[in-house]
What does this fold into?
Amino acid sequence: MIIQIKNNVSILQVLSYLGLKPNGSNFINSIYKDEKTPSLKIYPETNTFFCFATDQGGDVIKFYSDYNRIDTKQTIKELSEIFSIKKYPYSNDLSVSGEAKSNRQPEQKYFLLQSEKELFDERAAIVEFDGNEDQQTAESLAFNQILENRKEIQSKIYEAVYKFSLSKGFDEAAYKYLTGKNRGLTEKSINDFRLFTINGVKEIIEFLKDNFSRDEIKISGFFKNKYFIFTKHRLIIPYIENGKIVYLRGRYFYKGNIEPENFGKYIGLNNWSLTLSPKRFYNSDLLKELIPYEDLIITEGEFDCIITNQIGYKAVGISGVSNFPEQKIKQVKNYNIHLAFDSDEAGQKAIKKISHLFDKPIKVIKLKVHKDLTELFNAEQ
It folds into this structure.
């Protein structure tokens, strides 16, 4: 039932029901303390909130629960009644792309592959018995376990694809592109950030089929509507968290060409599994090495992040201004933040928007002549 509520009840609906109205910047007064200046930010796009005054946040269920000072069980009961949410069973009726058949309601179900059904039933039964939870809560917790298992499968596959691709060698033209005057990366940076290329799509597909089950391949996100995601985006940028590859982005690089005609320059994995969002910090393992209030640059784009670290600065990146991971802002809030986004209109607008997410002043690296940090640093060489 928790999943059904999250998927069908927006936080704005809850605010309206409670008689609360966000200001133009989506702030309301904290629900945890009395204050004159609103410090609680509403994020409609992710259906979440965060109170900067108390460092508390969460989803629509936590908001209603904390506002009314009631437990989760009572919150689920009340929200279900208020918004007429009914319980739906899980489903394993999925296409390769992860879309349900037209007569289904995908947003209201636990989507399970056939190989996951037994584990789901087992975990739900154990949780319900051991924790004395109701069936709805037990099923929600069991599904969370399924999602964690998917993450492990994804990491296992990405690591294997990385090693397989390295064994085939780095595409020579792509290597020249990375180390040339436009990117300026060193061999050490390429290795440290585990960049690699896909030299043969057919080979990769055969490798996947030979080493992983059909369900595992679906979970990997490599395919959408039976189309291999990185067919033409063959320069691969791994996202590494806790030492493991957890996500992949592809930069367009096809037959030596870097400028796509009918594609975007970058593409991410298909998020069928619900665990592959690009809204995460790139190079986030760096944060383990920093001490509070140390300088940290947040760049727009992975390559800007790589060269910034190569030059000697500490930086994490985002995969684009629309993918700033607002829910992970606590990972960086204790550092001396410097935003370094592209000098175009989108980058400058994003700086203003993202600056408001922090509860303290942040610094901005303004690029007056160059379009991004990569161009700036390479011009200085």
